[in-house]
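Before the break, one more example. Copy the sequence into your notebook; we will annotate it together after we see the structure.
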Amino acid sequence: MKTVIETKNLVKVYNGGVAPVKAVNNVNIKFNEGEFTAIVGPSGSGKTTFLNLIGGLDKPTDGEIFIENVDISKLKERKLFDFRLKNIGFVFQSYNLIPVLTAKENVSFIMLLQKMKSNEMNKRAEELLQAVGLGDKMDVRPSKLSGGQQQRVAVARALASKPKFILADEPTANLDTQSALNLLDIMARLNKEENITLLFSTHDQRVIDRARRVVTLIDGAVSEDVNK
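Here is what the structure looks like once it is written out:
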């Protein structure tokens, strides 16, 4: 198996409040290409911080993060932005859709940043929305979509850049059972068919049941790492 993500002695300390908080505590871990991993643990265990570090949304206090042999913790802001744009798709609990844009425009936004040709961009946005079951909602703005529909738009947007990795932070937390299962079916299919590496932070047993590896964080450190 090819290792595509590796952290070495990864530490993140937040200095606000009464005392420093070590949100990520000396994590050494590897993820292989095509893995579907659930990052679990109680609230405050460091799941979201760990995912944000992997995704280059936050800088480590100490340690290294290698993605395909690139130490992203050392990249300057512009190069880090470009690296994320080309390699990583994000799915957030709060959807983070742009309210004034339609579903199709939200999906197209990443490709616009990539300077993709207009006809290619439109075709891919339409194909992705069809793939997540929203072919009839392309011209609808987020406020007119249900939570499950908004999350599927977010998944389509995450896939727009043809990423090698998708990082999802509690992606099913605000969804009803059927919407969550539909979303997980889509992600599992993409994982299998396109070999996209998936890392989900989650409390959701439905996600944990689908994942093929479960990493448990307690107080920012890996307490358990189980392959199913």
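The chain has a mean pLDDT of 91. The first helix runs from residue 47 to 54. Try to locate both features in your own notes.
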